[in-house]
Amino acid sequence: MTSTLKVFVARLVGLVVLGPDGESMGRVRDVVVSMYLPGQRPRALGLAVELTTRRRIFVPMSRVTNIDADAVTLTTGRVNLRRLHLRPNEALAVGQILESQVHTDDPDHPGLHDSALVVVDMEIERSQRLDWVISRVALRTTRKGPLRRRGETVVVPWHHVRGLTRLNLNRPGHGVELALTQFEGMRPADVAGVLRELPDHRRDELAAALDNERLADVLQEMSTDEQTAALAALKPSRAADVLEAMDPDDVADLLGELPAAEAEALLARMDPEESEPVRRLLLHSPDTAGGVMTPEPIIVSAGATVSEALARVANPDIPSATATMVFVVRPPTSTPTGKFLGAVHMQALLREPPANLVAGILDADVPRLGPDDSLEVMTRFFATYNLVLAPVVDDDAHLLGAVAVDDLLDAVLPRDWREQEPEGEL
Asked: Which residue windows are coiled coil (predicted)?
């Protein structure tokens, strides 16, 4: 028996979920509700729990043994680790129902009978049959009335709310603002995981609402199939803007999966300065160093100072693996560069006086890859030299780019590795 028999769903969000052994397994992110049961109150079927691995799973409410101010505790037994997937009659309380427009015929609030109201929270209650059902709904007024202030909140019994059981959760714009608020502060990979769980129309709607930079970061954490689907839902001009905000190697991987005419149309819409590195990458096979590399590593000339190199490394937009090494070349310093002279490791930069030249701490013998090296060669390379970043240099000693170990992992892992379910149960 749970110590709490009633709770508002917004209060549950963010609570730690404890297993029967008292160890934290994740946090509550939403409540899954069954919406379409004629003649019955909608039931709270379970919790959408985000594991410490960032995967979201479904935990049935029957597994909940205690809810207190800080945590939700589960009973003994198995928890399936398969990713959360909603059935056609199910909805996410926070992600889909809150911010819905409804009406009320509650006799205690006659002044609201003709008012447009918005759902701001829902109370779930444990019934005598041990099911969790929606008992009350918190509503906010959307316009000022003769006796009411705009933005005032009232709580009414579920059976006096009209329109919620037949909510058109597919309608454009529904709850987008609330969802975007939830995304604030989340890592792109976590946002990608959330979008992956939503119906196609909802995912496309939220993707369209993200700004170009944010959407680009999220797309880079998706599989190529998911990227192409998301791109297809955008207008061509918007799609080109998002591609410009992505890393060139990710754009090349994505466009390489599209029909040639479609890929060329998108490249033509991009700024030539942004599309040119992508075109160079597309000349290489995707299973070679030239196809996996980023053409935009950190590059300086031999005359650069340590402080200048560190300023480049400190750029928050530079991926962590890319920031481990600064490449030194003769002009030009954009790829393909002049003669490749070597590299300076970040640790070496941190030990040097800021005014010193990078040429004085140059590692001229840093191991390097060729643009035609295979995935197997690259895998052995990183295992041998214990590096996280490797320069890609052609036969004429021009630096073409760099391969980061995370880009290599993306290339060697199964195509759908982001979507694969873990084995076993918790």
From this structure: none
Number of Cβ within 10 Å of residue 233's Cβ equals: 15
> Distance (Å, rounded) from C-alpha 33 to C-alpha 128?
18
Same domain for 164 and 185, yes or no, is no
Q: Is residue 221 part of a domain?
A: yes
Neighbours of 150 (CB within 10 A): 10
23 domain-assigned: yes
DSSP code per residue over 147-188? S--TT-EEEEEGGGEESSTT--TTSTTTTHHHHHHHHTT--H
User: For the segment 173-195, what is each residue's pLDDT rounded down to a tens digit?
Assistant: 555 666 676 677 778 888 888 88
CB atoms within 10 A of CB 86: 19
- Whether 166 and 89 have beta carbons less than 8 Å apart is answered as no
Residues 333 and 222 in one domain: no
Q: Count of domains in the chain?
A: 3
Domain that residue 372 falls in = 299-412
State the pTM of this model.
0.58
Query: Closest by alpha carbon to 225, among 178, 257, 271, 272?
Result: 257
